[in-house]
Each structure stands twice: as structure tokens, then as C-alpha cells.
Specification:
This protein is α+β, with helices and mostly antiparallel strands. The protein has eight helices and nine strands. β6 and β7 form a beta hairpin.
Amino acid sequence: MSAPFPEHPLRHALSAELHVRTFEALHPPARVAHIAYLCGPSGTGRNIAHLLRLLGHFGVMPPAEVGQQFFVDLGRLRLRWERHTEFVTYSFTAQGPFDAPFGPVFDTGLLDTLPEGWLQALPGTVVAAAVLALEGRDHPERDRAGLAALFDDNPVVGAEVAGGAALAWSDMREHADGFGRILVRDRGLSGAQAGRLIKRLLDVDTYRAMSLLGLPPARAAAAKLTDAERLLANVAGRMTAGNDQLATPKGTAAPPPERALLAELTALAAEIESVAADTASRFDASQAYHEIVRQRLQQLRQQRIEGLQTFTELLEARLTPGVATCAATARRQEHLAERAARMTALLRARVELELQEQNRSLLDSMDRRAKIQLRLQETVEGLSVVAIGYYGVGLVGYLLKGLKAGGLPIDPTLGIAIALPLVVGAAWYGLKRTKRRLLRKAD
């Protein structure tokens, strides 16, 4: 049935988003094997194909469409599959009593029904894996020695969780079978509470690993940034030395080649940006995952067990410094890029100022040459008037001599003397008029 009003095309998708990453009710005793592997954003097809292979092994009809989350009953196991931005999780739940909470997962009846080689063929690399055991409230109490033995005598952290409705312990380590270990004892959990609690504990285990994926790149980037800072300081020192040299009189040491410094600084800025581009998304993801860990820890509602660190205390002491290193490296990259940009702008200004000085000197030289050319041109114009007058007077002389020879009473010498200023004046006036006409056309 359609709604009686116009709907936004994303309304149903946004509503469904509230119900993604849900949980299933769970009752003790039960065990959960949780695996999270990196797949990247482009591995959707391979991830679903691997899931369908598992469903085919158990004879389960594949769904018409696999969304972000998928629940299915595999017989002895109950599977919860979740797809995230860059990792996928499988949670296999075995409901019922167990002899030992931990041990090799294929020898304790937990994952022994999986197809052979299926785990080895996961389309990605496992970043977190844990076995969580949920004991009933009627299970015999364990002393400190018995609790430590479950975790191979590693230091154990624990707390009352869910407002005192359960107890939880872990050593936050991987054991010989490749899985971490989390033990939960029911003290009055409902099925829904148990499901929420187990999901939050497994989320803490997964997201704490994901949040630290940025630490190795941060350490690698730190070494490159240290070299970049040293080179940047060297360039700054050479720029300062260049300023001092520019202020010295002529004949002293010449200033450094600003253009070479600019090329060096530009290459250094590009290297800093390259490091930032390689790590920025990883550092942002570490911050986001760390925030999820903190939210999940808060949702556990922990109360101290005498003599044990709580989950929050351990992770604040061990996890937060690593994430802070990622954040500090990100800020360091940003500040170093800003410094390189400021120095580049300063050096560009110096280069432009030098070019302007050179251009001004060139214009002054061109102006001097133009004045010289003008004077030469005026000299040439004067010589042209003389030359034209000379030839003009010569022609007038030939004319007068011819007329005298024809019988006219003319004195050629006197005629030439009278014609000389007229011819020269006409030549001068003609050149000036031609020059003015050409200048008007040019304007």
C-alpha cells in the first residue's frame, strides 16, 4: 500500500538504516566465534560469493538480495554476517553447553562444521578474531588462578557490565589458535540484553584493531615529515641568507638563485602533499573507529571488579596514545603543508619583485635607446632635407641653363640662388607633413 502523501525517494532507505547492525537475543550457555577481515570498498562481489559458498555447503537457500546484514540458521550454528565500509564480519553462534569455554575452535565443536579450507579462502586479511563464551549464572565461580588459566596466565581485565547484570573478562590478546578470548558470566541478563552486550564486546574488539591500522602509516610518515621539516628549515635559512646578501653593496657575494630555491620548495611541498594524500583517509578512519570504541565502552556500563583494570582503563591507556599519534601526525602534515605554502608564496613574491626590477631596468634601457633613435632620426631627417634640396637645386639649375641656351635673358646663377631656399623649404615642409600624416594614421 502506498503512502497517502508524496515520499522522499530515500525515506525507506533512511528508515531501514536505523535497523542495520542489530543483534539477536541470546541465552547462556553459548559461544560466539567472531571474525573481521579487511576487504576494501571494491570487494563486494567476492565477499558475497564467499558467503554464498558457505550457505551452499549447509544447504541454505541464498537470499534474493544480501544487504548490509544477514542472519541465517546453519543448524548447530547461527550466522550473523555484516558488511562495513572496509571490512566484513562473520559471527558464528553455537547455543548450548560446552566443556571448555576456549580452545582450538575446530576441536571444541564451534567451527568444526565449516567447509574445509573456507576460512583460509576468505577474500581478505583478518584484522580481528575472538571467541566469546557466555556462561550461565549457575556455573561454578572461578578464583583468580582459574580465571588466569583460561587466558594462558596473561594479565586479565574485567568489569561488571550491563549495570551489574553480567561479568566480563578478557586479556585482549591473540592466542595460539589465532583468536582472542572474552568470557562473560550471566548474572540476570535477559535474552535481548545478552545479545546487545555480546555485540558491544565484539564491536570493541573489532574497532580497537581497526582504529590502530593508522599507527604504522603514522610512524612511517613521521620519518618523512622529519626529513621534510629539516629541508624546509634549510630552505628558509637560505632564503634569509639571500635577503642579507641582497642588502649588501655591489661586488659582494651574489644573492642565491631564487628560481632554483622555488623549484626545490615546490618539490618539497609536493612530497608533503603526497604523504598527506596517502595517509589522510586512514587517519580519519582511525579517529572514527576510536570514537565508536569509546561509545561501545560507555554503553557497557562498567563497574570495577576489585583488583582488575576495566576495559575502559586498559584501552584508554593503550589505545588512545596510538590514535593520538595518528591525529598528531595528521596535524603535523597539515601545518607543514601550510608552512611550505607560505614559504612558496614568499619566495614567489621575491621572484616576482626581482622580475619587476629587471623589467624596470629593461624599460629604462629601452627608453634611452628610443631617445637616441629619435635623435638619430631627427639627424637623418635634416640630412634628408639637405640631400633633397641639393638634388632639387641641381634640377632647377639645369632648367635655367636650358632656358638661357634657348635665348631667354636669364642668369642661371642668380636663379639658383633664389631657388635654393624655396627648394630646401619645400623639402623640409614635405617631410614634416608626411611625418604628421603617418603619425595620425598610427594613432
